[in-house]
Amino acid sequence: MIESNHNPPLLHDYTQLLQGSRDSVETKQRINYEQEMEECDLPLVDLGGLWSMNEEESVSCASEICKASAEWGFFQIVNHGISLELLRRMRKVQVELFKTPFEQKMASGLLDNSYRWGNRTATCPKQLSWCEAFHVPLSKISDQTCYGEFSSLREVMQEYADAMQELAKSIARVLVMNMGGGRSLWEDNCNESTCFMRLNRYPSCPISPEVFGLVPHTDSDFLTILHQDEHVGGLQLMKDSKWVAVKPNPDALVVNIGDLFQAWSNDVYKSVEHKVTVNQEVERHSIAYFLCPSYESFIGCCDKEGSIYRRFTFGEYRRQIQEDVKDYGHKVGLPRFLVST
After folding, report:
1. How confident is the model at residue 304 (pLDDT cuts 50, 70, 90)?
2. Residue 150 CA to chain centroid, in angstroms?
3. pTM metric for this prediction
4. Quick check: 289 and 222 in contact, CB under 8 A?
5. Measured between alpha carbons, how far is 202 from 133 in angstroms, rounded to an integer?
6. Contact predicate 195/165, CB 8 Å
């Protein structure tokens, strides 16, 4: 297969990694396993209740959010306040952006040099992510100089980022209040100078499902809001010690808990391992918003007396992840910060 000029050279990288790789048996096992994948319906939360003047409805909605965060680590939301028109506009400009020739995406410095693809540290096929992305700091979205010839992106990206920021704070507020926490955890430490938005594209893959769109991982933030493809599935998560596929819901956004909320809640809320598969026939797009604190922010615990994690900063956490990926080829994450270790 010859990749078109807007695709990154993923097939070349996969071929190079496959040569001399010893994980061919594991790959075959994974293919058979994927074919038997169960589908699941994530908990569906109607956020209309959260905005309701009826206290009973508001309390019930908050309870659903917290229950899903504790039992699943993932849930879907409808009536979230973000217009379908804005979601469609954002998806349209996203698709157009990724049609830019690969060499131009690599060299243009677009969106604060945020373009990335594959996995440059991969040493075997199972570590390769078959995707390309723009991982953009929110602080740069309003900066006109980041867009170059793509200045038409700025207005819709700014509107989208602002809407996601407010939505994420509303959900975080519920989770913090449920554990008896104060506003400072997220209100003071999570803003446009610390949060990120990631535009993802998963090209069609001739060797699917031998590779991942995104390798299995947990998110390193407080929470993530995902606008996934309404028609092309691919998101899978670990539930009850097995992988399950998430059915796409065209009317819903997906929310998942990140490592920082799991640590802060003393494992009440769950940061669940998840991955993305690819499709042999069609490409897939998604947009993720990440609610993050500053690197200097300390991640404490709502239970001051019985925390199972030692106190650490977000910067310290990120540095440890980078070291582990370099040394072992994968993220270790929260187990590194248990009090007993």
Report:
1. confident
2. 25
3. 0.92
4. no
5. 9
6. yes
**Residue 244 above 90 pLDDT?**
yes
Q: List C-alpha distances in Å: 320 to 55, 177, 221, 328.
A: 43, 29, 14, 12
Helix (H) or strand (E) holding 198: strand 196-202
The b-or-e profile of 120-131 (16+ CB within 10 A means b, else e) is: eebebbbbbbbb
d(CA 50, CA 58): 4
Non-local (6+) Cβ contacts of 282 within 8 A are 204, 232
Phi, psi of 122 (to 5 degrees): -65, 135
- Per the CB < 8 A criterion, the answer to whether 27 and 34 are in contact is no
Nearest of 331, 243, 186, 215 to residue 40 by alpha carbon: 243
Name the residue among 115, 164, 118 with its Cα closest to residue 138. 164
| Residue 328: per-residue pLDDT | 86
The Cα 175–Cα 122 span in angstroms is 36
CATH value of 10-301 in 2.60.120.330, 2.30.40.10, 1.10.285.10, 3.40.50.450 = 2.60.120.330
DSSP conformation letters of 257-326: E-HHHHHHTTTSS----EEEE--SS--EEEEEEEE---TT-EE--S-SSS-SB--EEHHHHHHHHHHHHH
The residue ranges of every structural domain in the chain are 10-301
- Which among 200, 73, 193 has a CA at the least distance from the CA of 133? 200
Strands ordered across the beta sheet of 242-246 = 38-40, 242-246, 235-239, 274-277, 212-217
